[in-house]
Amino acid sequence: TWLQLISLAEGARLKSLKEIWKVTGLTGYRRKTCYRRTLRNILNNMDENLTFDSERSSVIIVDKFYRVKKAFKREVEALSRTRVLSLNFNRPEESAKAANKVLEEQIGKHFEELVLPEDFTDSRLLMTDAAYFKSAWRHPFNYAHTKLAEFYSNNGIEVAGKVNMMHQIGYFNYAEIPLINARVLELPCTDERISMLIYLPLKDNILDLFYLMQETTLSGILNQLKIEGEIPVNISLPRFEIVSEMSNIRELLYDMGITKIFYPNSVQLRGISDYSLDVSLMTQVVAIEVTEKDVSASSGP
Prior knowledge:
Layout: H1 2-9, H2 14-24, H3 35-49, E1 53-63, H4 70-80, E2 83-87, H5 92-107, E3 125-136, E4 147-152, E5 159-177, E6 182-188, E7 195-201, H6 206-212, H7 218-228, E8 230-238, E9 240-246, H8 249-256, E10 281-282, E11 284-290, E12 294-300
Parallel strand pairs: 1-2, 3-10
Antiparallel strand pairs: 1-3, 3-12, 4-5, 5-6, 5-8, 6-7, 9-11, 11-12
Helix pairs in contact: 1-2
């Protein structure tokens, strides 16, 4: 979403631009001549230095009748490698197929249809961002130790069903954090910059943990894990895949202070088109899969 906003800022003007730069934390940087070069170098270095399998694809889809300015298309595609597509929104099936083809060319077949025909109904500008990464565990689970076992619901009493439970015993960063009333386990990947944190409530249920997370920060939890260090841990973790759709990005951005870009009467996107244009749709889907060998995650609209 941050990169989507940065791309959109290239075409925003006046109050719309001020809102975007305030929320992204880059107020004032746009005037610096080195800004675009610096951001482009950061993105390029990320792709070159990541040792795990990683791909990213981003598109801005505009109704072709709004005539996207060539300067906007050129700057955005050079800055963040976001593709700007001008499609016929009156032909939703054809346009959805074209958009999905571009996304698939950049990120592969990690998703099904990211853009749907109904997305083009009563729309003028759609923003789609998809990312995928996969990294092997530093300490993989042994397939032979995976057994079918019961998995319990939020209250820890009712059996929700049976799952393939992975097992291993080893040394891992582990800590009990009273502030959030939970145990936290860190599972590192082969790339030392990537790890997964597993939270297990000491009591109550998982929903209470969501609220308690407001009482601390990720850096605070990581510091506590570092202080406690590695200890022997007997791990039982289900093999799982979770798909979660975030359809309220518009509301979240509104709460953060970005309001103008979603309303035709107040938006100022004259850098994109000479016609009145507003952001019609911005959604995201995140998928995470955990297996004995690795962890993979993907996100898209």
